[in-house]
Design brief:
The chain is α+β, with helices and mostly antiparallel strands and 130 residues long. The protein has helices at residues 7-18, 57-74, 115-124; strands at 31-41, 44-52, 79-90, 93-103, 112-114. Helix 2 (57-74) crosses helix 3 (115-124).
């Protein structure tokens, strides 16, 4: 038995929609909500950042790193070393609490940043800094 002609267009629409890409991600549109800095002791600095629209914790950590890079340059230093970062998502507002040491020379450790290079990359990618 053959289906009535009116059903074929509906079947075709269903088959085509099943081929549409699924899992497409929305464009990355972050809202950077500010940076607070506190000089803890000599060369130890705390950066608290807030943002919405982050894709994951990496976006929040990157925002804090950008703040650390610019702050390092403002203080007349060239390098920073990451100590720790704590990140929490509170109702769509991501908050990062990061600590870095800043220094004029490349510090020992694995998680060091060249402040000038990182700050330039942050500026190029539209990530605000201190």
């Amino acid at each position: 038995m053959r289906a009535p002609a009116a059903i074929w267009p509906l079947a075709l629409v269903g088959a085509v929609s099943a081929c549409a890409p699924s899992g497409e991600k929305a464009p990355f549109m972050p809202e950077y909500r500010g940076v607070q800095t506190d000089l803890l002791d000599g060369d130890l600095v705390n950066f608290r950042v807030a943002m919405s629209g982050a894709r994951d914790t990496g976006d929040v950590a990157r925002y804090a790193e950008c703040a650390a890079a610019q702050y390092t340059l403002i203080r007349g230093y060239g390098f920073a070393r990451h100590v720790r970062t704590n990140i929490a998502d509170e109702g769509g507002i991501w908050r990062g609490d990061a600590v870095y040491t800043i220094s004029p020379a490349l510090p020992r450790g694995l998680k060091t940043i060249d402040a000038e290079v990182v700050a330039a990359d942050c500026a190029e990618n539209g990530i605000p800094m201190v």
